[in-house]
Design brief:
The complex is a heterodimer. A 5-stranded parallel beta sheet of chain A has the order 2-1-3-4-5, with helices on both faces. By secondary structure, chain A is an alpha/beta fold. Chain A is globular and about 35 Å long. Chain A has helices at about 10-15, 35-50, 60-70, 85-95, 110-120, 135-145, and strands at about 30, 50-55, 75, 105, 125-130. Chain A has one domain: Response regulator (Rossmann fold), CATH 3.40.50.2300. Chain A is built from 6 helices and 5 strands, in the order αβαβαβαβαβα. In chain A, about 40% of the residues are buried. Chain B is mainly α. Chain B folds into 4 domains: about 5-420, Sodium/glucose cotransporter (Up-down Bundle), CATH 1.20.1730; about 535-635, no CATH class; about 645-740, Helix Hairpins, CATH 1.10.287.130; about 750-895, Heat Shock Protein 90, CATH 3.30.565. In chain B, helix 29 (about 640-705) packs antiparallel against helix 30 (about 710-740). Chain B is elongated. The chains are: A alpha/beta, B mainly alpha. Chains A and B meet through helix 2 of A and helix 29 and helix 30 of B.
């Protein structure tokens, strides 16, 4: 986890606002979140750490995006319009090629059962809203191994 | 007396009738709005008087002429009905019972309904009635023209022209008061009252002339009797054959003439009125006939030779210088003629529209696809049109026939024509074995014989029937001579035609019924009619609809849409709502159970006739199949068994209803428990979402140097999200206060129109770029309210804002309709979008329910839940009205809200 010594490389790192703490190294994170404000907050937090962020407000073309863009990690909100985050997660896990993709499930529902369902569906990590920015960042870094 | 004065008097009299009819309609309408019965109309007296449409101008003028020509024979015309009312009232009672139970709209509808709801039979009877009634209407027009002539003297006023004006005036009156509403069951108050008044006028007129004749011209009753004795002639000898035949004919007419059926059955408000009518109507007839012979005898004695005795009632007082009496007699005759024409044309127009126009339209629609347009308009207009046609035909008949024949002859010809319905009618009420094929055979045979042997020859030789045929028979076959069928030439033409037409009719009917096999629907209706008294009305739930199968579920919403087109939106909705409540359901859509379909059919039948109503429902439910239970009910022979099983059925239905209510209550409780959990988790979700943004951005603002631009942007997000939080908390508090009835209502006075103005302005801020057209009727909105105007406006704004957000029409239009319903007022908001999906209609008033995703909706999904609670607090409600072509919300509330109102019904325990 503690790989702070790794120097940022490449174009992506240059775009990062705080290159000194940039762990992302231009790698891509897919964020599915229907609340535009929350989505913007996550984008800001990750981008500052050197991650490229691709945001979507619903889960319709999520699988195609994952296959074509090959993100290093996905952050899914549970309550998405149309196709729920858990649906998307199950579809991801159903594909052998994507079985290893780290997925963080975010939800505003605080129940223990919700967590259980999310973990059983194959979430790598479950986080309740509201979250601490540092906590989210740490989780991303840890799961990707940055 | 000048003719102009006479015309003026007639006009005044007509204006008087208009006023009475109009006032009665108004009173009835007020009574209906206030939900109480209309006493005046529902009195046996008015019923009895309305039956006097039997006494037309023919009985008023013609009876005297008849008496002058044939002595006492005129009395048969009164004797027949008297015998039926006194001795055969049980037949009439059954007729009325069956007619009311099946919402029958005319005699054609009655026959059609009994014989398997066959429209073909309805058409046959309608055509027969048209053929038989047209000359009769002509007769009335002729009598009015003659009475004008009697006054005019040598002044050769164009009688035909006057008759034309009278026909036009009658058409206007009939259209105005006979086709105002559609439901034939509860209408024509104005007409019936006007007819009752006319009945009094004609009786008073005849009695006045009679009194003048007996005590003014002769020296009292004894003198009159001697004069009658002296005047007795050979032609006056009683002929037993004619007596018997004419009495029978008049007795038949009382039940089969379309106008008699109309007042006897269709306009009957209460079966018990028949008990009074059974002695009061014969009494009326006796009074009407009391002075006929004295007037005839005195007329023969005092009037110059060659004067038309048909007009003695009028010309005798006139000749004696009693112009006042003559005027009264004129008005009496005018009343007799107009009342017949009005009722007959209403009855005929109903038949024409229900059995000819609407079925044609239905067939056209079945080919054309979708149900379009307003059926009520179609039906009413076709009736108006039919009235015009009928009166035109009547006038043409009068103009062509030239008014030559004596009045009584035309009347009797019409009697024989309608008498053809008798065998089929008796069979309908008393013979389960009678079939549709038999009925059609009987009716057609009888009608043809009547046409050939009586009706067509009545125009005179060589007009419609060549003289050669009259003398030698058709095709030269002597036993086909119209007046001597099968070589029987000794009877007089009328009796001859009566004998052969009824005899062949009954034979064909019997033979056809015995040889054919009744279909399921015929058996079912046959049992219903024949066992009318054995079946209790409430328990009788087997009228022929199959229980819905899971595969093809008739769409209650489609049924509602159709019912609205026929019964009108208000009526249909309240009927559906009541039926849904009966089934223990909320809202406007009851389950289409067989019992419900029966009730709906009955309701529609009272507007468009049985056959049509049945066909319309069958079109939607996809099949008019008779259920096994219904056939079993027919099969079980004795009335007792049926009665018993009906009771059992009622009980088991009761049980089923209770079970259903329990099940629904249980489901509701379970739902509530789940709702409670999900309510908490939803609140949590709704609170956490804005919280997340606030926390994330405040952390960003706290621990990093960021650009000034970003700082402003993120601070704004925090600000917006905290406002969203506050609003959510406000809504939740509001809802909680409203649900627990702790709300302080701020009652103030305001005009509804202004409140709607204000609400529209306020809701314009939602998606201001959308152009939203709003249709209103400001005149209806001028209602002074006393209620919590702020809360009411809140509801209006919410509904309007929702429409702005969700109406998906390209050119969105919102229609706002205000209706007063007694002490309450309802405001409908109907847009032209695709509406709320059926499965969601029951959920929209629940908390946190949204049509689309959170962000687009921009609220927590509490708006309609709050609206509902507000309306409960205002003593009203808000409902979704399906089948309006878009999203439709109806807000109903009392115009004046009592200040310290206890909280209304507790529908659900609050969370």
């Amino acid at each position: 986890m503690a790989q702070n010594d790794c120097a940022p490389r490449g174009a992506a790192a240059d775009r990062a606002e705080a290159p000194g703490t940039g762990h992302g190294r231009g790698r891509l994170v897919l964020v599915l979140e229907d609340e535009p404000n929350i989505s913007e907050a996550i984008r800001f937090i990750l981008h500052r750490d050197g991650w490229d962020v691709l945001s979507r407000g619903d889960g319709h073309d999520a699988l195609d995006l994952i296959e074509s863009k090959a993100p290093a990690l996905a952050i899914l909100d549970v309550m998405l319009p149309g196709r729920s985050g858990l649906d998307v997660l199950q579809a991801i896990r159903a594909r052998p090629a994507l079985a290893g993709l780290p997925v963080i499930v975010l939800t505003a529902k605080g129940h223990a059962t919700d967590r259980e369902i999310a973990m059983r569906s194959g979430a790598s990590l479950y986080m309740a809203k509201p979250f601490a920015n540092a906590e989210l960042l740490a989780a991303v870094r840890q799961l990707v191994g940055a | 007396m000048s003719l102009n004065l006479l015309i003026l008097a007639a006009l005044f009299y007509v204006a008087f009738l208009f006023t009475i009819a109009w006032a009665a309609e108004r009173r009835a309408e007020m009574a209906r709005v206030q939900g109480r019965p209309f006493r005046l109309l529902r009195s046996p007296l008015v019923y009895t008087l309305s039956l006097s449409v039997y006494c037309t101008a023919w009985t008023f003028y013609g009876a005297v002429g008849y008496a002058a020509r044939s002595g006492l024979e005129f009395a048969t015309i009164y004797l027949g009905p008297t015998l039926v009312f006194v001795g055969w009232w049980w037949l009439l009672r059954k007729l009325v019972r069956v007619g009311k139970a099946h919402s029958v709209t005319s005699i054609a509808d009655m026959i059609s309904s009994r014989y398997g709801k066959s429209n073909a039979l309805g058409v046959i009877v309608t055509l027969l009635a048209m053929a038989a009634t047209t000359p009769y209407i002509a007769l009335q027009l002729q009598s009015i023209a003659l009475s004008f002539e009697a006054f005019a003297g040598d002044d050769s006023m164009a009688a035909r022209q006057l008759a034309l004006w009278v026909a036009a005036g009658l058409a206007v009156f009939t259209i105005l008061f006979g086709t105002r509403n559609l439901d034939a069951k509860e209408q024509h108050h104005g007409v019936v009252i006007a007819i009752a008044v006319e009945a009094v006028v004609k009786l008073v007129a005849l009695l006045a002339v009679g009194t003048f004749v007996v005590w003014g011209l002769a020296d009292g009753p004894a003198d009159v009797l001697t004069r009658i004795e002296a005047a007795s002639r050979v032609e006056w000898t009683i002929q037993p054959g004619r007596w018997l035949g004419l009495t029978l004919l008049a007795g038949i007419a009382i039940a089969t003439l379309p106008r008699m059926f109309q007042v006897l059955v269709v306009e009957n408000a209460d079966e018990r009125h028949l008990a009074v009518a059974s002695w009061a109507f014969p009494l009326y007839l006796i009074l009407m006939s009391l002075f006929v012979l004295p007037i005839a005898v005195m007329g023969l004695e005092l009037m110059p030779e060659g004067k038309n005795p048909d007009m003695f009632v009028l010309s005798l007082p006139l000749a004696m210088g009693r112009e006042d009496l003559a005027l009264l007699a004129f008005l009496g005759g005018f009343s007799a003629a107009t009342s017949m024409v009005i009722i007959a044309s209403i009855a005929l127009s109903t038949m024409v529209s229900n059995h000819i126009v609407v079925p044609l339209w239905l067939r056209h629609r079945a080919r054309g696809g979708r149900m379009q347009g307003d059926v009520r308009g179609l039906v009413l207009n076709s009736r108006r049109f039919a009235i015009g046609i009928i009166l035109t035909l009547g006038y043409l008949y009068y103009a062509v026939s030239g008014g030559g024949a004596a009045l009584a002859a035309i009347g009797l010809i019409a009697f024989v024509g309608m008498a053809q319905v008798l065998p089929v009618l008796i069979g309908a009420l008393y013979w389960r074995g009678a079939t549709r094929v038999g009925a059609a055979a009987g009716l057609v045979t009888g009608a043809l014989v009547w046409l050939y042997a009586l009706f067509l020859p009545s125009f005179g030789p060589d007009v419609l029937v060549p003289a050669r045929v009259m003398a030698e028979g058709a095709f030269g076959i002597s036993w086909l001579r119209p007046h001597a069928l099968f070589g029987v030439g000794t009877l007089d033409p009328l009796l001859h035609a009566l004998f052969w037409s009824l005899g062949l009719n009954a034979t064909a009917f019997l033979a056809g019924s015995l040889l054919s096999f009744p279909g399921p629907m015929e058996r079912l209706q046959g049992a219903q009619f024949v066992n009318a008294f054995a079946l209790s009305q409430d328990g009788d739930a087997t009228r022929g609809w199959m229980p819905p199968q899971s595969r093809i579920e008739p769409e209650a919403e489609d049924l509602l849409a159709m019912a609205q087109r026929i019964m009108g939106a208000t009526e249909a909705q309240s009927f559906f709502q009541a039926e849904a409540a009966e089934q223990g359901k909320q809202g406007y859509l009851p389950d289409p159970t067989p019992a419900f379909l029966d009730k709906l059919e009955l309701k529609l039948a009272s507007s468009v006739g049985t056959a049509t109503a049945h066909a319309m429902i069958a079109q939607i439910t996809g099949g008019a199949i008779v259920s096994v239970e219904a056939l079993m009910a027919v099969a079980s022979e004795t009335a007792q068994i049926m009665e018993h099983s009906a009771q059992l059925e009622a009980k088991s239905e009761e049980l089923a209803r209770t079970a259903r209510q329990l099940r629904e209550a249980n489901e509701l409780l379970q739902k509530l428990s789940i709702q409670k959990d999900s309510f908490l988790s939803q609140i949590s979700h709704e609170l956490r979402t804005p919280m997340t943004s606030i926390r994330a951005f405040s952390e960003i603002l706290m621990d990093d140097e960021i650009t000034g631009e970003e700082q402003t942007k993120y601070a704004r997000i925090i600000h917006d999200e905290s406002i969203r939080l506050t609003r959510l908390l406000d809504d939740l508090l509001d809802l909680s206060v409203l649900e627990h009835g702790q709300v302080n209502l701020d009652i103030g006075q305001a005009n509804l129109s202004e409140l709607i103005d204000k609400s529209i302005t306020a809701s314009n801020s939602v998606l201001p770029q959308r152009d939203f057209r709003i249709l209103r009727h400001p005149a209806d909105e001028q209602i002074a309210l006393s209620t919590d105007t702020g809360r009411l406006t809140q509801v209006f704004i919410n509904v309007l804002s929702n429409a702005r957000k969700y109406c998906d029409a390209e050119a969105p239009v919102m229609r706002i309709t205000v209706r007063r319903r007694g002490p309450k007022v309802s405001v409908d908001f109907i847009d032209n979008g695709s509406g709320i999906p059926k499965k969601s209609q029951a959920l929209i008033f629940e908390k946190f329910w949204r049509l689309t995703d959170t962000h687009k909706a921009g609220g927590a999904g509490l708006g309609l839940a709050i609206c509902r609670e507000i309306m409960v607090n205002l003593g009203g409600d808000i409902t979704y009205v399906p089948g309006q072509g878009g999203a439709a919300f109806r807000v109903t509330f009392p115009i004046v809200l009592a200040p310290a109102r206890p909280r209304g019904d507790v529908r659900e325990p609050a969370e």
